[in-house]
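Lab notes, practical 5.
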Amino acid sequence: MITAYISTLAFVVILFLTLRDIRIFHRTNIYAYRKGALRGLIAGFIALIGLMLSINPDISPTIGLLLTFIAVMINKKEAREDIFTHNETTLQRFLGAGNK
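Output from the prediction step:
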């Protein structure tokens, strides 16, 4: 049962980071954030499959957890341009308020 909670948390985090990359790309048109958003969509799909497998009682939940961890590794951060002016609050950075 704990594997379902871990998979759910990983799925939510991947989706949040993907939506943040989409928002930053929409505001700044920096290609690296578009690439990160596309990678996040693929990772989110794999994490969703892992979540479904970890919830299913007929299949070993470790298979679903393995797919979830693979999705987290796919969603790794790349080198991107600095879009913050270092005047933002923590909340603005958390929500992805880029200024460029």
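Observations recorded by the TA: The mean pLDDT is 86. Residues 2-95 form one domain.
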